[in-house]
């Protein structure tokens, strides 16, 4: 269910606010009994609900939260979260930057477009809760080898999330990893996390370790569309979600989504969605 009637101004949360400069992550145990307004963040956010019920509204789409809900948000997402009356939520919240993800895991998780949100059964709930508790304990105690144990628990949580998500989806979303080389995977992952920035074909080709012209040919062969069209599709999808979930001025959405001019943004948006950004928001 998409909620388009309540408009918000998202707040930007920075790494400096939530992650210690000497670390690549921070774990919190949160008690949520109020509405946390629409926001985005520079870091990744891995959350697990231990008890209570509520809602998580990500990129304009509502998701029910309950005991056993596990979800991952990226720097490209914006969301708001709240608990139901008399059902406050307690949850683990692990925030981290890209340094905590090695290249193989990054490609594994993000070489495709996916909204990682699942509800675990009782058995899996206990397993994942114990992994978060292990991370929390090791952070506090800092015994010899704590970094190794933390990394292992973190990766097991992500892999459990990945497997559960794909086992339960009736129709998989756009797949871009299975028949493609690891070099193209690296470029796609980079695009999915940097599409709002000034991103050139040369930048993506560098991630793949290929010459730009050759990369362009390989990219089109593997995805069926050009680099520029793929990049523009990512930007338009983000702009569409932001139009639905916030009242940010259209000009600001244009630039926040990675477009350089309002004219280009409006023309591209109308071509893809059949109406101007302003009309789309009004309707």
From TrEMBL:
Annotated InterPro entries: AraC-bd, Homeodomain-like_sf, HTH-like, HTH_AraC, HTH_AraC-typ_CS, RmlC-like_jellyroll, Tscrpt_reg_AraC-type_HTH
Keyword Transcription carried by entry: yes
The keyword Transcription is annotated on this UniProt entry: yes
Domain annotation HTH araC/xylS-type: ranges: 185-283
Domain of life from the UniProt record: Bacteria
Pfam family, one: AraC_binding
Keywords attached to this entry: DNA-binding, Transcription, Transcription regulation
Record's protein name: Helix-turn-helix domain-containing protein
Species name: Paenibacillus plantarum
């Amino acid at each position: 269910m998409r909620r388009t009637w309540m408009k918000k101004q998202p707040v930007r949360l920075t790494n400096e606010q939530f992650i210690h400069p000497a670390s690549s992550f921070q774990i919190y145990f949160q008690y949520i009994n109020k509405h946390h307004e629409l926001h985005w963040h520079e870091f990744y956010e891995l959350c697990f609900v231990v008890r209570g019920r509520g809602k998580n509204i990500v990129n304009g789409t509502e998701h029910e939260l309950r005991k056993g809900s596990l979800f991952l948000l990226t720097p490209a997402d914006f969301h708001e979260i709240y608990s139901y009356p008399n059902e406050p939520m307690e949850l683990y919240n692990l925030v981290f930057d890209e340094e905590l993800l090695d290249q193989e895991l990054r490609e594994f998780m993000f070489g495709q477009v996916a909204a990682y949100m699942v509800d675990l059964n009782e058995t899996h709930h206990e397993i994942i809760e114990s992994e978060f508790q292990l991370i929390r304990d090791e952070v506090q105690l800092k015994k010899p080898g704590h970094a190794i144990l933390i990394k292992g628990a973190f990766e097991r949580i992500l892999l459990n999330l990945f497997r559960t998500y794909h086992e339960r989806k009736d129709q998989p979303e756009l797949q871009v990893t299975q028949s493609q080389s690891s070099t193209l995977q690296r470029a796609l992952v980079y695009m999915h996390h940097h599409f709002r920035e000034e991103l050139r074909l040369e930048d993506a080709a560098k991630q793949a370790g290929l010459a730009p012209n050759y990369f362009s040919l390989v990219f089109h062969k593997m995805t069926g569309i050009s680099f520029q069209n793929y990049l523009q599709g990512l930007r338009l999808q983000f702009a569409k979600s932001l139009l639905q979930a916030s009242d940010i001025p259209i000009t600001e959405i244009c630039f926040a989504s990675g477009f350089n001019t309002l004219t280009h943004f409006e023309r591209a948006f109308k071509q893809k969605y059949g109406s101007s950004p302003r009309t789309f928001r009004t309707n």
